[in-house]
Amino acid sequence: xxxxxxxxxxxxxxxxxxxxxxxxxxxxxxxxxxxxxxxxxxxxxxxxxxxxxxxxxxxxxxxxxxxxxxxxxxxxxxxxxxxxxxxxxxxxxxxxxxxxxxxxxxxxxxxxxxxxxxxxxxxxxxxxxxxxxxxxxxxxxxxxxxxxxxxxxxxxxxxxxxxxxxxxxxxxxxxxxxxxxxxxxxxxxxxxxxxxxxxxxxxxxxxxxxxxxxxxxxxxxxxxxxxxxxxxxxxxxxxxxxxxxxxxxxxxxxxxxxxxxxxxxxxxxxxxxxxxxxxxxxxxxxxxxxxxxxxxxxxxxxxxxxxxxxxxxxxxxxxxxxxxxxxxxxxxxxxxxxxxxxxxxxxxxxxxxxxxxxxxxxxxxxxxxxxxxxxxxxxxxxxxxxxxxxxxxxxxxxxxxxxxxxxxxxxxxxxxxxxxxxxxxxxxxxxxxxxxxxxxxxxxxxxxxxxxxxxxxxxxxxxxxx
Length: 466
Prior knowledge:
- The chain is an alpha+beta fold.
- It has a single domain, classed as Amidase signature (AS) domain (Amidase signature (AS) enzymes, Alpha-Beta Complex).
- It has 15 helices and 13 strands.
- It has helices at 11-19, 25-43, 51-66, 110-117, 160-167, 184-189, 224-234, 252-255, 279-294, 307-323, 333-341, 345-365, 392-403, 408-412, 442-456, and strands spanning 46-49, 79-83, 121-126, 146-147, 150-154, 173-178, 193-196, 216-221, 264-268, 298-302, 371-375, 416-423, 430-437.
- α2 runs antiparallel to α3, α10 packs across α12 (345-365) and α11 (333-341) packs across α13 (392-403).
- The chain is globular, with a radius of gyration of 21 Å.
């Protein structure tokens, strides 16, 4: 099966074929590189492709495979993309800033080290929005990242390149991160599975917890099992990490293969003051809720008022952009506006205290439920350029109205999974749902998502590029 059809199989199937020596790491890489050459000019998923480095790694892996080692890393031979917010030694790291396009990184991020140890081949850097600040990837000085399902629309942001690459079959899976929906949004837009782990489950080393625990690194993949296997590789504790977890009794991949049991699931479509969910998105939530009910879970409805979290979250967001240290003239208009609105250190600390208080209230209320079922976004995936010429204040209002269900769970630190459930009839774009769990309960979410994935089946449509 050494042909392009192989790229439509799962990451775990590809890894098994390598172990069985039905395909070599170098042969698999060349299939992906050919697809990148053909599709990336249309999609704009990669900021940088490190062909020579990836070929050297794949050739070394192929040589090792021929020696019949007794044990191989779990993801041996699988290419992966690293979001251009995380450095890879020798590759440029722009952080989505055009002025930094040619700046090479001198060290590897810990995520790069962990994924390499798991057997992944670091293929390149995936495109992001400028400083990872926006939920669409149309960065000044870069090609826009387009949605493989419909090239007229965005792949989301800030992990837009990661999601577009996986959806278009240019990668089996990818690394992303999520500070306000930056992983979940692109997974939703591109019809993929995404996991935002519990705060601290995946290390932030070596840079550290730059935005006070709001951001979490996680996997983007085409199915639950692949995402779970990638999370297993990512979720390694490193010395000095500020958050502690007991050792897992089993792997996340094992969780994808067992029943979650009967769960109490709350369904939420309303996040006041944002209550105007599109009808097609409401129907998608109902579809998922009905499927969960048919699986034997207890379903009830709820509402989650997020009004109190908006201003403090905005203050932390603004401060993070200002703290990046990039001179304002080197940035686009929206980020310049954010920097101009950043307040004092006291404003920042008071906002953190507010988010912590709100988080305690949300998590305390959570005790009666196992899982919350919610939309990822409230309305349709936007077209490329739709908001490009808006004043920053108006763009910010539209962003909040679109992405409202996401940021609260960055504040609480709860784990969230995104799963595609339907297609928009007019645009052929995916609609996904969020499954939000209790702190530390990624395994339960993975079991539930795998069960729901099997119940609903694959999305009926297909991507627009091939």
